[in-house]
Amino acid sequence: MRKVGLIGLGAMGLGMAGSLRRAGEQVHVYDVRAEACQAFAAEGGVACASPAELAAQCEVVVSVVVNAAQTEQVLFGPGGAADAMQRGSLFVMCSTVDPNWSMSLEERLAAKGLLYLDAPISGGAAKAASGQMTMMTAGRPEAYAKAGKLLEAMAAKVYRLGDRAGNGSKVKIINQLLAGVHIAAAAEAMALGLREGVDAEALYEVITNSAGNSWMFENRMAHVLKGDYTPLSAVDIFVKDLGLVLDTARATKFPLPLASTAHQMFMQASSAGHGREDDAAVIKIFPGITLPGGS
């Protein structure tokens, strides 16, 4: 039994911590919400009061926070993990970030004698809880060796995309390009159907059994039909992630017209006050329609 730390008990992190515990690891956890840590500890984990306290006890630290800024805080802020980790320990970064930032983080940690895996994740909270999510990883061979079977304990599919950090994050933002465009297109299609007076339930049934279906249409438009915009993945996540996509492409003057349009749609939804709602709320930008549930 190894001592493994996980920082960030959100929708994905909590499920991943549970998967590690089921795999027989001694899981130490930290979250800014102390009550989340205590709830996990009550079921067999170890709650820590800071990233540094966690890192001092664990040879592998998995970070499942929102973005690069939060990762910086976890590592280098007050009570941060970087100075507390023992040389040869491994930091696994699961956030969606700028690939260039991830590559630079590998070098910064290497200077401290620490190993690093660029390991963004995908699949949603349910797959994280069941250990069925996907990890897009890249890192040095010694980092993979240190991880051992921990990655497979958290994910059904672990893709190894390179022997240096960067490609994991590059593949993740390409995934987010597709996810964001598919959600925006699904919302546009459902909005057109509503505007034209088509029954929403009937439209959903037909599309999900036809060639125009996508996983995002099937999943997110179900939220619209229920009028439930509880944020499993929020509008503002795609403001951020599609922004990363566009920043990456802009650096090499590569055109992304569909991603640009989808980003503007999520920006419009956020500006209208829907940023913290489920990303399906991008449908609320369309005028002249009545949504199920009266939203």
From TrEMBL:
GO function term, MF aspect, one: NAD binding
GO biological process, one term: organic acid catabolic process
Domain 6-phosphogluconate dehydrogenase NADP-binding as annotated: residue spans: 3-162
Catalyzed reactions per annotation: L-threonate + NAD(+) = 2-dehydro-L-erythronate + NADH + H(+)
Enzyme Commission number(s): 1.1.1.411
Keyword annotations from UniProtKB, A to Z: Carbohydrate metabolism, NAD, NADP, Oxidoreductase
PROSITE patterns named among the record's database cross-references: 3_HYDROXYISOBUT_DH
InterPro entries from the UniProt entry: 3-OH-isobutyrate_DH-rel_CS (IPR002204), 6-PGluconate_DH-like_C_sf (IPR008927), 6PGD_dom2 (IPR013328), 6PGDH_NADP-bd (IPR006115), HIBADH-like_NADP-bd (IPR029154), HIBADH-related (IPR015815), LtnD (IPR050006), NAD(P)-bd_dom_sf (IPR036291)
Signal peptide segment: none
Matches recorded under Pfam families: NAD_binding_11 (PF14833), NAD_binding_2 (PF03446)
Keyword NADP: yes
Positions annotated as active site in the UniProt record: 172
Start and end residues of each 3-hydroxyisobutyrate dehydrogenase-like NAD-binding domain: 166-285
Keyword NADP assigned: yes
Gene3D superfamilies reported for this sequence: N-(1-d-carboxylethyl)-l-norvaline Dehydrogenase, domain 2, NAD(P)-binding Rossmann-like Domain
Family to which the UniProt record says this protein belongs: Belongs to the HIBADH-related family. L-threonate dehydrogenase subfamily.
Stated role: Catalyzes oxidation of L-threonate to 2-oxo-tetronate. Can use either NAD(+) or NADP(+) as cosubstrate, with a preference for NAD(+).
Protein name: L-threonate dehydrogenase
Organism (species): Ramlibacter montanisoli
Upper classification of the organism: Bacteria, Pseudomonadati, Pseudomonadota, Betaproteobacteria, Burkholderiales
